Amino acid sequence: MSRARILVIEDNPDNMTLISDVLVSLQYEVLQAVDGEQGLQMAEEFRPDLILMDLSLPRLDGWSATRLLKSNPELRAIPVIALTAHAMVGDRERALEAGCDDYISKPINLRELAAKLNRFKIGRVSCREREERWVLTEHV
Ligand code: MN
């Protein structure tokens, strides 16, 4: 079975670990980038099925990285979910304006993350299958 591939672009190591662990438990294949430039390079090279995009990033911020992705005909179809800081008023609006398809507030609610990913219907593992795995792994 081929797994859906998710690129996580996040410069905070704790967030990166948390998100990656959840994605792996949900049977996604995870790619990691620690700044906007590396994220763009990896998107081009590995063509992920979806991108989780932190906004405050070194080298190239998440808004600019998303604009560049969405202006590239070969990459624009990849859904981008912004990871927005809860306290930052206007972050979400600016994220959608930059071309993000959706957003998740930090601190990240893991169940919300799983639900949002299901909504994009990426990969070949069924939503039901993922939910069952999620319930199974949630209490570990
Ligand atoms: Mn950040």
List keywords for this structure.
5-stranded parallel β-sheet; single chain; binds manganese (II) ion; alpha/beta
How would you concisely characterize the structure shown here?
The chain is an alpha/beta fold and 140 residues long. It is built from 6 helices and 5 strands, in the order βαβαβαβαβαα. The protein is 44% helix and 19% strand.
Tell me about this structure.
Helices cover 44% and strands 19% of the residues. The chain is built from 6 helices and 5 strands. By secondary structure, it is α/β, with parallel strands linked by helices. It has a 5-stranded parallel beta sheet with strand order 2-1-3-4-5, sandwiched between helices. The protein has helices spanning 13-25, 36-46, 62-70, 91-97, 110-119, 127-138, and strands at residues 5-9, 29-33, 50-54, 80-85, 102-106. α2 packs parallel to α3. It is globular. The mean pLDDT is 87. Residues 11-12, 54, 56-57 line the site of manganese (II) ion.
Bound molecules: manganese (II) ion
Kindly, what is the distance between the CA atoms of the first and last residues, rounded to a whole number of angstroms?
A: 25 Å
Question: In terms of quaternary structure, what is this?
Answer: single chain
Mean of pLDDT? 87
What's the shape? Answer: globular
Structural class: alpha/beta
Provide the helix percentage.
40-55%
Q: What are the low-pLDDT stretches, counting only 5+ consecutive residues below 50?
A: none
Strand content: 15-25%
Strand order of the largest sheet: 2-1-3-4-5
Number of strands: 5
> What string, H for helix and E for strand, traces the elements in order?
EHEHEHEHEHH
Largest sheet: 5 strands, parallel
Helical run tally = 6
* Rg from alpha-carbon coordinates: 14 Å
